[in-house]
Design brief:
It is built from 4 helices and 9 strands. The protein has 190 residues and is α/β, with parallel strands linked by helices. The protein has a 5-stranded parallel beta sheet, sandwiched between helices. A 4-stranded antiparallel beta sheet has the order 1-8-7-9. Strand 4, helix 3 and strand 5 (130-138) form a beta-alpha-beta unit. The longest helix has 19 residues, at 13-31. The protein is globular, with a radius of gyration of 16 Å. The two termini are 17 Å apart.
């Protein structure tokens, strides 16, 4: 793992927890409770964030909120450039997504292309009543007309910077979000 001296931390563990709690309250307010709600994470770090969000929604509402993961590998528009990408698995909760409000969860929203792939994958799996997007960080620079419904932190960045999300479940390090200059480094580049 490469460490960058110029990296600056913009969210620490407590900040990530607060952001997820706020997002949970926003989701419940917009959905008018947790009825017919499904939370799906986009690998890799979106899955861990989705599990945490579903757990927090359940704690607030007093009833479990179904969650799963949505692999978007085969729906990506850059497969021709990087065809040797491992295909993950999609795991939908019992009852599927038909006529449910699906909250897609990802760590960083950047160009919007991953979310476009997620929407394509989702439509192949069923017909949700509505789809909402929750992200820990929105860094701007959209290439497609996609926006998040729920954002933990809006983080204006330059295209030359990298936003790296670290989660204890994935990286074995305390939760954090850092910005660093230069090329992709260890962690979640977005």
């Amino acid at each position: 793992m490469v460490r960058v001296v110029d990296a600056r931390t913009v969210l620490e563990s407590a900040d990530v927890a607060r952001a997820l709690t706020r997002i949970a309250h926003e989701v419940l307010e917009q959905n008018k409770g947790s009825d017919r709600l499904v939370v799906l994470g986009i690998p890799t770090r979106g899955v861990s964030l989705a599990e945490r969000l579903a757990r927090r929604l359940g704690e607030i509402e007093g009833t479990p909120v179904p969650h799963g993961c949505l692999d978007v590998t085969m729906y990506r528009d850059d497969l021709r450039r990087a065809p040797l990408r491992p295909v993950g698995s999609t795991a939908l909760p019992e009852g599927g997504i038909d006529d449910r409000t699906v909250v897609l969860v990802d760590d960083v929203l950047y160009s919007g292309r991953t979310i476009r792939a997620a929407l394509d994958a989702l439509i192949d799996l069923g017909r949700p009543r509505a789809v909402r997007l929750a992200v820990l960080v929105d860094r701007g620079h959209r290439e497609l007309p996609i926006r998040a419904d729920h954002v933990g932190k809006n983080l204006p960045t330059s295209r030359a910077e990298r936003v790296m999300v670290r989660l204890v479940e994935v990286d074995g390090e305390p939760d954090s979000v850092t910005i660093a200059p230069g090329p992709t480094l260890a962690g979640s580049p977005s």
